[in-house]
User: What shape does this take?
Amino acid sequence: QKEVEQNSGPLSVPEGAIASLNCTYSDRGSQSFFWYRQYSGKSPELIMSIYSNGDKEDGRFTAQLNKASQYVSLLIRDSQPSDSATYLCAVNPNRDDKIIFGKGTRLHILP
Amino acid sequence: SQTIHQWPATLVQPVGSPLSLECTVEGTSNPNLYWYRQAAGRGLQLLFYSVGIGQISSEVPQNLSASRPQDRQFILSSKKLLLSDSGFYLCAWTGGPYGYTFGSGTRLTVV
Assistant: This one.
């Protein structure tokens, strides 16, 4: 069974520090990888996508992909209280568009 | 630009009553459409997905059903709700092997 694993947290990070969120996936042939942010009571919002090994930066966010280790991470630099949310890792194992979601990591930025 | 609409935002229904949740997408054609449920403290569970009008695939057998009467309309239904049907229902769409865009969700409480 194809799985996406995340530490449920909560992960507490001081304001201004770097938050590091990690995710592993089981299907070695996975093609596409996504990070979603979900505020309490709201729907998930796509914040990063990554398709090839290495780093992808967008503002304060950096997604890292290592297909050999089947590992995806999200770094948030200069963490702000508004970054406090649940972060969902999602993987598309093939090209049929059915994404598998992890259960999410709760991130709490301490003011 | 593409937008996704989902309603109602909240719903309180008695056990045994019917259910109809609607989702529409604007600004695109032939989207892949998805219904997810997120129970309290749990991950996203894929319920149904559709790649075209009248084409519905069910991921989890249960007392829910889905229909796609028009290209950009996706409906989730039940004839008789159970207490276990309570949750946060999310509609999503994608136009290719990219991340999903979610609607704002419906918070369903079955009492």
Q: What stands out?
A: The mean pLDDT of chain B is 92. Chain B touches chain A at residues 32, 42-44, 46, 49, 90, 94, 96-105, 107 (CB under 8 Å). The two ends of chain B are 38 Å apart (CA to CA). Residues 47 and 60 of chain B are 6 Å apart (CA to CA).
